[in-house]
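In practice, a research group might receive sequence data for several interacting partners and want a quick structural hypothesis before committing to experiments. The following worked case mirrors that situation: the sequences arrive first, and a predicted assembly follows.
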Amino acid sequence: MKFGIVVFPGSNCDHDCHHVATELLGCEADYIWHHDRDLKGSDVVILPGGFAYGDYLRAGALARFSPVMESVAAFAKSGGPVLGICNGFQVLLEAGLLPGAMQINRGLRYVCRDIHMKVENDATPFTSLYPKGSVVTMPVGHMEGNYTAPPHVLDALEREGRVVFRYCDLQGNVTDAANPNGAARNIAGIANREGNVVGLMPHPDRCAEPLVGNDAGRKMFESAVAALAAR
Amino acid sequence: MKVEVRVYPREGVLDPQGKAIAAALGRLGHASVQDVRAGKVFFIEVAGRDAKAAEADARKMAEELLANTVIEGYDVKVVS
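A structural hypothesis for the assembly, expressed as tokens:
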């Protein structure tokens, strides 16, 4: 069981993901430089948070042209589990592996705090260990997390159960006040049609052990391990 | 040749930046401001003398990279 963690120039959560995979879960993990095309036999690929290419032009816009993204797209197409966290989610959107786009937060400020979100899809390889409907608390840290897509795309996401996480309050009510960035329909994370590609703005990698005061994110990584073991 | 590509939020797409600028202009006393949409301009130098080809190239650049067509529109002008 091996995690492949893509490193773009400007990624800064690559080590967090590596730490969770190796130190906390006891799995193998390797960094994959964005110029490499070889995914080094990874069973799961993670696009970590950060500021790939300094977020120049638009977050994720330049990273999608990195050679590694061709391999990631092929891996995703073959059913391989791919997780994009924060900036990694933005890269997946720009690369067209997930639908929609990110805009600047409606408050026009960088948002860095804990949020609550509801698990709406427990059938992905990254969410199977979270009970559907449960409320999970994770930190966010982003300037562009205001998810948007044309109405027919949003409707399709809803209809096909591809909204994976939705911002909510601690009781699970999906309210505007609980929406940290103005994301359409409080969307915090989505999946592709097949369910193997998941992107989310919150950071499971930053809350995976009691040492940091919250281990809610650990299950995302453990879900991937469980999904692969079940194959 | 010089080509200008303007990229801007599509009509109907929420533009938080434009809204904030409109509010700031209002606070500065520009009471006539009704709406602002904020975009970007790219000034691109291209080789060659064929204006049609330059425009076609710039359109391709906009589609591929300069604009995210999910939320942004663009237009292209050959300046000289």
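Before designing any experiment, note the following. The interface with chain A takes residues 13-17, 20, 65-66, 68, 70-71 of chain B (CB under 8 Å). Chain B has one domain: 2-78.
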